[in-house]
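Model it.
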Amino acid sequence: MEALFWNGSGVPRRFRPIPPNSERRLRASNLQAFLDLAEGVDADTSMHHLRAHDDSEWIRAAIEDPELADEVRAAERADASADESRARIRAAIDRRYTLPS
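Modeled.
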C-alpha cells in the first residue's frame, strides 16, 4: 500500500491515506488538508498508517518539522485507538501551528 506521493526529487510531498483494498485516493499537501482528511478516514485505514509510521515520516520529510514528527511518532506508538491517536496528533499540530485566539 503506497502511503506517500513521491515527487521527482524523491521527497514525499503529499500524504495519501489509502484504504486497504480500495481504489479511493486522497491527498494532503499541507497540515490542514492532512487534518481534514484524517477526520474522514475510517479506523482501519488510520491504524494501518499509524502502525506504518506514515504520518510522522510524511511530517518529517514534507513538512520538515522533526520535533512535530517526533511527537506524532509517539502518538503512532501509543497503545491507543485510531480516534485517540488522531486526537493526539491533532493536538500536537495545534500546539505548534495554531495561534492563540
